[in-house]
Amino acid sequence: MDQHGTGVRAYRWLVFIxxxxxxxxxxxxxxxxxxxxxxxxxxxxxxxxxxxxxSRMLALTCPPLVPxx
Length: 69
Hints:
Elements: H1 6-29, H2 42-61
Helix pairs in contact: 1-2
Keywords: Membrane, Transmembrane, Transmembrane helix
Transmembrane segments: 12-29, 41-59
């Protein structure tokens, strides 16, 4: 499978944008009344790890911004 193909790159951008948007939404609208805020739920930790893994998979697909010398 070609990891640098257009379809793979578009899918990884879509997953990254969805994960980033949902993470920012929960950080902005989370209940911070109790200790830990939204971080006290395991589902939010899973969302954060999905966001991190989506960013790392996108980094594998896209070329670096600064070329190595």
